[in-house]
## 1
Amino acid sequence: MSLVRIPPTLRAETNGEREVLANGDNVRELLDDLTARFPTLGSQIISDGGIAPFVNVYVDGEDVRTRDGLDTPVEDASTVILLPAMAGGSS
Amino acid sequence: MPTYREFLAQIRSELDEIAPPAAAALADDATFVDVRERDEWDVEHIAGAVHVPRGRLESRIEQAAPDRSAPVVVYCESGSRSAFAARTLKELGYEDVRNLAGGIVEWKRRGLPLEASQGLSPEARRRYSRHLLIPEVGEEGQLRLLESKVLLIGAGGLGSPAALYLAAAGVGTLGIVDADAVDETNLQRQILHDTSRLGTPKVASAADRLRALNPDVQVRPFEERLTSENVDRILEEGWDVIVDGADNFPTRYLVNDASVWHRIPVVHGSIFRFEGQVTVFAPREGPCYRCLFPSPPPPELAPSCAEGGVLGVLPGIIGSLQASEALKLALGIGDPLVGRLLLFDALSATFTEVALRRDPACPVCGDAPSITEYIDYVEFCEGVRT
């Protein structure tokens, strides 16, 4: 089980949970497990079968796009961060 | 392949060179452009010259010498670096460019007028004394700050602390782009403004406050919303750093694309409820915003617009981090957050850092860019503000 940090903009999809545990040996399996339990989360982070271009997934601080994408391995002790684009700042 | 000397000789043969006495006779008509580094300029320079370091020549020359048909005399220490700069100016369409033969060394040998950069005044020494005590800043650094130019996108939550600290630090010119007026709902976090300024344009409220804080600072207000129509005009004023505190995706992408093309580093900050993030996008050195997020989310999924709200102090923390990064960039010290995204969670009081890498396939800063013109994304957050 890996720890997945849910960004504030997606917490409505995880019943307000800031962190959830998920199963999977790689990012694909882990996201499948997450979206099976939180179905509306899937549409926020997946598009065309891959990670949506407005979302980044980090495993232990590294962007999975710079590793093996959905095939990037995930360890039990890994921390996974989902990071969608945020725009808030000024007004 | 030519050697350096052969290449320089070839460049020189294609240029008009001018001896110092003849150049001095042109002093009333020509713009003298010093292309050396800051520390060389500070020691001494030709009286009346403008300083445009060679590394910033393309982006700054239009401001220093707007008339391409007017004569320009370019110089460096001995005439070599300025030869390359002169060639660049000709390529940029300057019609009457001359390289000062022998550079400032020869100018000085002929006894022609020089001026040293002014040191800090006694008042400035007192005001900035806590900076002067830091070896990494010192008098040279403070002079550098006083000559630096930082452009703030937004005078709101993030822009407020950033602008206040940059002004207090003595950043010489602060540009502020904001089209909004001060609203009651702003005052929970936007500490540049106060109750007496409700209804006032934010740039006016900000300018008054910043000038009152530090009269050394020139405030350059732009009371307009950043668009594809005005972004080049605003960026062409030659900024050293951009502090992005925009509240919407269209502006974020516009700032990113423009900063890549104008080669200006952007200190990026964003906030939502209890969490914020900061990074520095340095063109050519590290990733840009599009390396991170190639395109904005579709309107129905735009997460920043779905639910608003922000803890009032959060922009104070993130905006102050942005000011810190902007000062480091202006001073050329430390390790800026290039290629690193710093995430802050106020509820757990934790900072987390993740790595950002330049994407060779990035549509703007990648090896084969597919985006070469500004895109006006639809404003899908209108009316919903964070």
Note: The longest strand of chain B covers residues 266-272.
## 2
Amino acid sequence: MSAVLPPIVAPGAGNAPRSEGVWRAAWRRLRADRLGIVAMAVVGVFLLMIVLTASGLVARGWQKEVALPSAPPTFVGAASAVAADAIATPTGPIADISAVDPLAPRYKEWAERAAQYKTVETPRAETLPFGADRLGRDVLAKAMKGTQTSVFVGLLGALVATLIGTVLGALGGFFGGKVGDFLEWLYSVFTSIPDILLILSFAVIFGRGIVSVAIILALVGWTGIYRQVRAEFIKHSTRDYVRSAEAIGASAGARMFRHILPNVSHVILVRLSLLVVAFIKFEVILSYLGLGVGVDDVSWGTMLSEAQSELILGYWWQLVAATAFMAVFVTAFSLMTDALRDALDPKLRGLE
Amino acid sequence: MAAYLIRRLWQMIPTLVGVVLLVFLLFKFFGGDPAEILAGLNATPEQVQAIRDQLGLNSPWYVQLWINLKSIVTFDWGRSFATNETVANIFATRLPATLTVMIPILVFDTLLALPIAMWVAYRRGSLSDRAIMVISTVALSVSFLVYIIIGQYIFAFQLGWFPVQGWSDSVAKNLVTYVPLPVLLVLFVGVAPQTRLYRTFFLDELGHDYVRTARAKGMTEKTVLFKHVLRNAMIPILTNIGLSLPGIFVGSFLIEVFFSIPGLGREVILAVNRSDYPVIQAITVYLAMITMLINLLVDVLYKLVDPRVVLK
């Protein structure tokens, strides 16, 4: 029918402006969101800091004991030396027992031998800008290094989870049938076990360490992405553009990952950033319980677990430092995610 | 209805088999050797071998899987590797403590969040609406650990309003003395995000045509809100409560660890630290069962709340 009609020529059709793509439109919406931009800038600053700590330019010596144990922050002032007098020094004459002391003849020899070793008393700071922990390590350096660990775990875990979820979701949604049934079964198995229990079970098996925590979280967290990607692929796989691609001989793999994937990637990006926040929180809890990062690493979780016993003694600065770093990063990241979601997927606005 | 229930229960079997297989394979092929953990560092190889015999770890894997399946069906999980307590006994003694903490949390959380959410959604865009959003974003940005640490320090250690931690044998004493602080802390963190979620459900319903119709008929706002909107919004809210129900049984394990509450969550952590496989396996499999049963229950409840829902 349309063959007999002359094609409708839009005014100025020769160089009609292309309608803007999904990414460009999203960027335009995102730029209008002032809060989102600020949040992105804060996240950017954190990422820069992480690059600096990871490359060793900053906070390389976080394990060095640079100050007195539990040295307070500078603005509080140095701790008063009350503790020194806690045990009264005994008064009265010192009895000479060298006649009966069996070790007396060797004291001189030992003193000479000890003199051969030089001990250098490193000067230790009395205060630090953010205080020191119970070993005298700089809390600021620890917090920066801990940020690197915690955020790295969150990002790596979320990336792996997204990869698993996307590939399985694409396969399940595109092919359906036996493959789809099998994946649905796998999904129902994983979702019928409460997350935290699954995480703990995996934690027993994989042991501690930064990468193993990320893998554990990824193995537990892929289900949400799988579900959503699968739904999107089911929707898209029967659309005209995919059928056209099939008609010109595009393979199944090409249709899935070259044609459909770019059209659902905004959904994946939003899910990814939601996972980052969730995983950072899980890492903190796992590390607190001693199932997270190794003993040689520092993360927000290990800092908090040290801070609990310090707080009772009145050393609040490590708790405040770890909490402040975490609060700023997570708030900024959540706001950025909100802004991204509003920009990329306006339909989802206000949900979750 | 009966046919529906039977079919749903039947469909649970493959999932449950999957859960059992997953847990079994994980611990059998990837986990450490429980005999070595039990024997300790100074054990001779003969001792380790003897423990392996005793635990039945030397039989072929299919025999072990068979025993595993049998133990699920007969509800007899044997004994904990570490304490020799029967797993059944662990469930029976730890579950009440968990429920004593978690049920008040669930009840108060829902009772507080529902009216606030309704009110906030009704006055959409107002200052209180924005405040809830901001509070929930900020409240969620700090790890729950921090709230517990600070809460215990201020309310229990400094002010002495509550005991720092502890538990007793009497339910009444637990509820009055030991439960309030953890419950308050959870509510402090949890109510705002919950309100935020319920608010979207109410907003969804408020936008529907039937609300306009009801108002046009001259119904009072009270009738519109409580008779029409609330009932319709109950469906997503029920789903949400249903989803959070299985979590009750592990409890918020963080709370149990911090407040020394002898519940199931703390037991899981202990079992994890001791590589106590029978306990972890049993808890995982039973929680999976409970989760599926609760999902079924929620679906049936839909039918009661909303007669239009067809169970299929």
Note: Residues 139-175 of chain A form the longest helix (37 residues).
